[in-house]
Protein 1
Amino acid sequence: MQEILRTNNPVSLSYAESLLKDAGIDCLVFDGHTSVLEGSIGAIQRRLMVADDDVEKARRLLADSDIDG
């Protein structure tokens, strides 16, 4: 798995996750629980991960949607 997005912005993360799922790309959010445990103050960024085979397609989709990864 590779990271394609790291952010503190829950809206951007949710939007990116939705775009990927709609395109048939499986993704996982890493560090979501850690972020909540530390009080959601934004010190720990969440990471959006995809399978190695989907990295290029996912990055292209996020770039086309103006989401920086």
Protein 2
Amino acid sequence: MSDINDLTQRIIAFRDARDWKQFHKPKDLAVSLSLEASEVLEHFQWKNEVEIGEYVLTHKDEIADELADVLNYLLIMAHDLGIDIIEAEEKKVSKNEAKYPVEKAKGNAMKYTELEKI
């Protein structure tokens, strides 16, 4: 399954078959999205770069599960709020391209407000 709309429909069908929409208020979806993102972060907590490299090799499936949970909540929330997530991402990339021009941002981790001063 490569199409984001097909994936979204599959997730929504899974949810609706279980009558879980009643629990999926925007606030609760946002909380769940944040919690799942924190579970991704937990895999990297207290590890240095070498340890992370080794850990990822042996825990890729568990990390993938957490990333998939994040994506599930993101797609459900976008669906329920009537947001075309691909269109939103395309707009965001365009905004970021304007905020972070290559000639100022390349190899630089400064925030756009600092880049403007250069």
Protein 3
Amino acid sequence: MNRVCTLNTRQAFIRLPARVDQVARAREFVLSALGADHPSAGPIQLIVDELVTNSILHSRSGRRPDGKVSITLTSHSQLIRVEVTDDGGASLPRLREADFCAEGGRGLHLVDALATTWNCARGPYGTTTTWAEVAD
């Protein structure tokens, strides 16, 4: 079940199928939670787009027909925190040297440029949560 909670409760959450066609829904979720007039809506949409795409392409979530990706937005201390959780992969997300001739490989560089800070962690059941914080 996909439920969107508004961020005026200080937290919003959605769980989506880990399919490329759901990335647009992830961006819509950000607009629904923050509102189109929120000053950080655009950067947060781009961060969510990149993190969800990485989850689909590089985790077990994207390789399973029933795979899911969860997105949580939390407002605290003048920051919006984005968390994207997937079923984990062979390694944790990391910045790598950008190959400017390649089609991909620059997503985390965008996240790094837009976010105040970001990181990732492996959960107790092998899940991976990648998070980023943006000034509210």
Protein 4
Amino acid sequence: MLARTKAWAGTLTRDVHAVWLAARHPGTPWYAKAAALAVAAYALSPIDLIPDFVPVLGYLDDLVIVPLGILLVRRLVPPAILAECRAEAEEAARQPRSGLGAALVVALWVSAAALLLWWLWPSAAP
């Protein structure tokens, strides 16, 4: 059961990326682009309809809303475009991740936090 759940989560992750790609594809109809953009934005946004700290319901909305949104987009986007976007999403998932890029992002955040702390820290001079 755990392997099946992991496979479903991997498929869901791929489909969210494919939905984002479909929203940007020139062959996707405007109404499908709007739905795909809304679903991708909700799935990737840190802001939820019901916050995750609410017991059970916090994660339940992600387990219901995102798959239903993907199902809607799958019905609206032409199958050839969706297959192309899924293949592109799978290829992107196979690409190696950049450790240097992650280190640069972390260094940027640490630098920004240090600058903000320096700016907000009261000085010793009157």
